[in-house]
TrEMBL record:
Membrane-spanning parts: 41-59, 65-86, 107-126, 132-149, 156-178
Record's protein name: Uncharacterized protein
Domain of life: Archaea
Keywords recorded for this protein, A-Z: Membrane, Transmembrane, Transmembrane helix
Organism, as annotated: Haloferax mediterranei (strain ATCC 33500 / DSM 1411 / JCM 8866 / NBRC 14739 / NCIMB 2177 / R-4)
Region (Disordered): 1-21
Lineage: Archaea, Methanobacteriati, Methanobacteriota, Stenosarchaea group, Halobacteria
Sequence ranges of Polar residues compositional bias: 1-16
Length: 197
């Protein structure tokens, strides 16, 4: 079903598909209703493979995570890794940046990612202060990106992504097995979701 209009690069309106109903509609809302089989496969493959790598690493390092910790890490790894790909596909960009989406919608999407606090809740290696720093940087960066002129949004987003990755490398430590979390979170949301022009 097509009933949403989108302005393409040539300035003409192109239809944007609407999500299907039921459980498949939820998937459509994540990857974009027009996602090709290849795009969907990339999203799923990277999410699943990356999650497997995280757990393989945790096992080789004998991290001894609780069931709750394992469930949280599985969800976060799948969501964030898959989201890095989903937010940068053509269909994902068309869906998440359709004309009805405003700055406040993009900010709300970013703000919903309270993942640093979820990690602080269940991992002793993640402090609440570090969680607040990571989340605060995420929200502050989102504001700066969203306030940038549209034609500068991508370079500004990449600037804040790069600085955020540096912050992750030298400013915070979420502990063994979670080293990927902050850089990947910033790649998904700042360099991916908010970078679309």
């Amino acid at each position: 079903m097509v009933n949403i209009e989108n302005i393409n690069e040539t300035g003409t309106q192109t239809p944007v598909e609407t999500p299907r109903s039921g459980p498949l509609g939820l998937w459509d809302r994540l990857v974009g209703p027009s996602a090709s089989v290849t795009e969907q496969a990339l999203v799923l493959a990277f999410g699943v493979v990356f999650t497997g790598v995280v757990f393989f690493y945790a096992r080789t390092k004998a991290l001894d995570w609780t069931v709750i910790q394992q469930l949280l890490v599985a969800f976060l790894a799948l969501d964030i890794a898959g989201g890095i790909v989903a937010n940068t596909t053509t269909s994902g960009v068309e869906w998440w940046h359709r004309p009805s989406q405003r700055r406040r919608d993009h900010f709300a999407f970013v703000a919903l990612h309270i993942y640093p606090f979820a990690l602080a809740l269940v991992f002793e290696t993640v402090s609440w202060a570090e969680g607040a720093l990571v989340y605060g940087y995420l929200l502050g960066s989102a504001v700066m990106i969203l306030l940038s002129p549209r034609h500068l949004r991508r370079p500004v987003a990449m600037l804040f992504t790069a600085v955020g990755i540096l912050l992750a490398l030298v400013g915070v430590s979420f502990g063994p097995g979670l080293e990927w979390f902050v850089p990947f979170l910033y790649l998904k949301l700042l360099g991916g979701h908010l970078a679309a022009e």
